[in-house]
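Lecture notes, structural biology module. Today: joint structure prediction for complexes of four components.
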Amino acid sequence: MELFIGAVSKYNALEKIPVKVSSEHDLYHSERHMLDKIGDHPALNVTDFAKALGVTKGAVSQVVKKLEGKGVVRRYKSGTNEKEVFLELTETGRGIYLDHKKTNDKTLEPLLDELKKYPDDKVQFLIAMFKWIDGFLNQSGKRMKEHL
Amino acid sequence: MELFIGAVSKYNALEKIPVKVSSEHDLYHSERHMLDKIGDHPALNVTDFAKALGVTKGAVSQVVKKLEGKGVVRRYKSGTNEKEVFLELTETGRGIYLDHKKTNDKTLEPLLDELKKYPDDKVQFLIAMFKWIDGFLNQSGKRMKEHL
DNA sequence: CTTCTTGGTTTAGTAGCTATACCATAAATC
DNA sequence: GATTTATGGTATAGCTACTAAACCAAGAAG
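The predicted structure, tokenised, for the full assembly:
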């Protein structure tokens, strides 16, 4: 468990580092996160993004405003509905998104190589344990919320 | 990897929830973190705690001030050295620390039970992989810092 | 047509940092 | 021993990344 917590905090530290996207602008952690989510799930409205990210819609609104200011995201409304706001990446934004995905895959390559060294049943076990931990944390979260 | 990231964000969400320590005071995430570290490593000075936690000494100073205000931590100076400030838990603080440890062990019990179901070599593999990930993230962190 | 609900934005306030300036004490140098 | 340098700690200003609440507008329901 100490190892897990250590890994989490190191991962968090890595996530925090801002990424330069042009000579003018950096993308901060939450902004990059948002951009990637928009890239993954095009055509969701603000409220749905808020749910997907686990934050309030106000938070999404704020981050999107910044991303729009940096020219990587665009809001738009569907013809029929004048209320809901949908989000999509601009050309620039799409480039950054794809770049993120690529560098992400590249950094994860060593992990895949390492895993290839081990027999399949062990790797399956690892995945099963991660799933178990995921479900475990879900349950803990629910229990904590009930206790408030 | 998706599973890992999901687990991380759920773990972070759990960590964020403030803990009531009395009718008057809550302990926020950073404060609880600090309190636990002081409990684990008594008699370190502020600078060493900053290193141990991976934050600046200013940050430690701020959190400690709050913890002192809530009556769970005390600063003191060793007789000989008038410069360094050491940290220790008060009676109340020690109680909270031990309570954290106990509830922590209790929440982790299901995980231990789950692990007991599997043969030793698989558990060892799990630990090895976590160590590998830890080292991997360490390296990535260093490389990122160099690139700035 | 009026009321209620839903989607979005804005604002004020907060935690949790960092960086910087600053002060005091200890260590090193002359 | 006096002066300079290094070290330990604090205080302040500023930032990200949120939340909660007030608010506004558009749809849906009555």
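Point to remember: The longest strand of chain A covers residues 73-76.
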